[in-house]
Amino acid sequence: MRTPIMPVPRLTSEQLDGLARDLDAVRDAVMADLGTPDAEYIRRLLRLQGRLELAGRALLYLGFLPPVWVAAVVCLAVSSLLNREEIGHNVLHGQYDWMGDPALSSQNVEWEGLASSKDWRRSHNYVHHTFTNVLGKDRDIGYGIMRVSPEQKWHPYYLGNGLYAALLMLLLDWGFALHDLEVDRLLRRERAWSENREIHRRLRRKIGVRVLREYVLFPALTGPFFFSTLAANACAKVLRDLWTSALIFCGHFPAGVVTFTEEELADEGRGHWYYRQLLGTANFDGGRLFQIMTGHLGHQIEHHLFPDMPSRRYPQIAPQVRAVCDKYGLPYNTGPLHRQFFSTWRSILRLSLPSRVVTRRGATSRRLGRLRVRTDTVGRR
Length: 381
Hints:
Blueprint: H1 13-33, H2 36-59, H3 66-92, H4 117-130, H5 161-170, H6 172-179, H7 183-187, H8 197-221, H9 226-252, H10 270-279, H11 288-293, H12 300-305, H13 314-327, H14 337-350, H15 360-363
């Protein structure tokens, strides 16, 4: 991604092995300590999310009184946000599989997002988290519609970079749903329509149920307040998507984030995988309530290192992860949300222009050269 030219340490094989041992030790200590407080946390959150949705639905029966309507929208937006991010996204990563509760099993839960859980586990949990920021492998680099790295070949289409980003923020949930269809690859004839048959079937079923529930059934249940309820449901989803997309962009697109080539994956071990996660992600600062409202995506670095660790533990281990980075001379990319957000949008807008127009100082990514490491341990979680 765009960042001023700065040296990025290249670790030796011995250092990468040490990095793996240090980070494994951080993970192992937390996973051995999981217990009642973690289980109570997710169950309290489920109860809170349900109560917020119930409150929002109940308020809509009072009609279109502006203060009441706004309160209903806020309740529904927060409920939907918690349901999709701090609950759904994290449960799908297997963060609570250790509890043995079928309702919190990554293989059983169907999350709030329009994309089916099965397809999301493949495209997000596997592809994105395994090949983080690898050009040509990680489809979350620009989501197939934006140019967010100077290594992506420029095309006049990218002059609309800012517009595409804005539309994605407004319609993020629909973007999630279409992401697995890989429409850009279909148009380039790199993917056959037949490959999407099962994905398309799951999408039709999931989208049909959600649209019927949110925009027909619930509005109809409020009788004469049908249209105010319809508008409230739509506004709640837009608010949720605007907030979530801002968080996601700030975790992978701001200055200082590194992209990689497929060649760098050859013989990749756990240490190099950890190394890529540290350099390919960014954090943003905030307190406890703020982190809950972000699904703990403010700790994107910790999440990418340990995606199956309960998210409430990320603030606890952040100082340890930072200390490990200091030990090996690696950057720990963090800062206020507004700074990361501004950096992200500056990158998106400048990379809409041809590479020859963008100055070297303003648009050079910290893409690393090939680094071979030993392969006796595989570092893909």
